[in-house]
Write a structure and sequence with these properties.
With about 400 residues, the protein is mainly α. Helix content is about 45%, strand content about 5%. It has 16 helices and five strands. It has helices at about 5-10, 40-50, 55-75, 85-100, 130-150, 165-170, 200-210, 215-225, 230-235, 265-280, 300-315, 320-335, 340-345, 350-355, 360-375, 390-395, and strands at about 20, 30-35, 240, 245-250, 260. Strands 3-4-5 form a three-stranded antiparallel sheet, with no helix packed on it. It has a two-stranded antiparallel sheet with strand order 1-2. The radius of gyration is 27 Å and the shape is globular.
């Protein structure tokens, strides 16, 4: 089997050369460099176009990582940009389907990939790349060649297959219309539609009790009462807290606007205890800090590790985003807030996204089914005076 075949089957690794590094500039904030540390100028021009179009720095970094993976494949195959590259895109898609994702490396004693946790009903992550990740890389490559074809310095035909049915389905569509179904383009992965998964109340109590300090209790209570995302919550400073109004300001994902969201009174009790023990940060500093080793800002990886340690003690596999799903499910099904009010709190652009939480939870259906199975069967009775033989002849009972 040649190198192409081994890559497509995940039997060969892409060379770990090149990197995505900060540029020190605003346009773009990140650049892709090759093995010698030189910028890839075509990639820099594309990322600069994204940055000038008001994409967030994290979007530029994400697109840079996607293009770095693409160029690593071209370097491994020793192929330039002056030819049709559709076959190479297929090799990359096959490699991502088959190769081991280093971000999903399992610790000793972790469950097998794809195994279902009997407590939460959630399956463990597979060892490879998720279908959304593969589709994202294909989107990045397609946008890269579309940009250069527009300026006449790239191949006329994009290497990523497109779906004409999708273009026709989305052309001149009103935002209020229900999207029409369309077929996937070649190489695009099927992404299953999964309902939001929230944490049942009993398991939430167990998870909250597994927290070992007021900092972690305050964080979990913030998540489940405000519906904030992890990155939004980790970015708040002392100036973003309204103690009297019991609300906080966060930088919303996507719009990057400063929005206010409410939180429960219990949140501020745990938060004040945490700040009393660890001290109040200086103005402009983030309030969440690590507790092990030298004190520094709490990052997403450290926060995820807090939840992972609690999961190990409880035998669960909850994720940080499940906390936002839990808050949304409680708000939408609590009977106090309207769906439009829940949309405003969660800062959803489309109310149909909020409406996904108006579904019965699996755990509630299990409880109702258990009650249904335990209910005694109804015995048929007939009015007195009928001969049992006649009833047997007519109804067979």
């Amino acid at each position: 089997m040649d190198l192409r075949g081994r890559l497509m089957e995940g039997q060969a690794a892409l060379p770990t050369i090149g990197a995505v590094v900060p540029s020190g500039r605003r346009h773009p904030p990140f650049v892709v460099v090759d093995r010698s540390g030189c910028e890839l100028e075509p990639v820099t021009r594309y990322l600069r176009n994204l940055a000038v179009g008001d994409c967030s720095p994290l979007t530029c970094r994400s697109y840079g990582l996607g293009l770095l993976r693409w160029f690593r494949l071209l370097w491994a195959l020793d192929i330039g940009q002056d030819r049709d590259l559709e076959a190479e895109v297929a090799v990359l898609a096959g490699w991502m389907r088959s190769a081991v994702n280093p971000q999903r490396t399992r610790r000793a004693g972790s469950p097998e990939a794809g195994a279902v946790n009997l407590r939460t009903g959630r399956a463990s992550l597979q060892v490879g790349y998720a279908p959304r990740s593969i589709n994202h890389v294909l989107l990045v490559i397609s946008g890269f060649y579309t940009y250069h074809a527009h300026f006449g310095d790239g191949p006329v035909q994009k290497p990523v297959p497109a779906a004409p049915q999708r273009r026709r389905a989305l052309a001149h569509r009103s935002p209020l219309e229900t999207p029409r179904p369309f077929g996937r383009a070649r190489l695009r992965q099927r992404v299953p539609a999964q309902p939001p998964r929230s944490i049942p109340d009993a398991m939430w109590d167990e998870l909250f009790a597994a927290m070992t300090c007021d900092r972690d209790r305050a964080l979990l209570e913030f998540f489940v009462s405000s519906g904030a995302r992890a990155a939004e919550l980790l970015g708040i400073t002392v100036e973003d807290i309204d103690w009297a109004g019991q609300r906080i300001w966060v930088i919303s994902k996507g719009t990057r606007s400063r929005d206010t969201i409410p939180a429960s009174p219990q949140v501020f009790v745990y938060l004040s205890r945490y700040l009393d023990v660890d001290g109040t940060p200086r103005p402009g500093e983030r309030i969440w800090r690590t507790r092990r080793g030298e004190q520094r800002e709490l990052r997403y990886g450290a926060l995820r590790r807090v939840l992972q340690r609690a999961n190990q003690r409880l035998g669960a596999n909850w994720t940080l985003h499940d906390l936002r799903h839990t808050a949304a499910s409680r708000m939408a099904n609590g009977g106090t807030l309207t769906l439009a009010e829940v949309q405003a709190i969660l800062r959803h652009a489309d109310i149909r996204t909020t409406g996904r939480y108006l579904v019965p939870r699996i755990e509630e259906m299990f409880d109702k089914l258990t009650e249904h199975y335990a209910r005694p069967r109804v015995t048929a009775t007939y009015s007195p005076g009928y001969d049992p033989a006649d009833v047997q002849a007519v109804f067979g009972a």
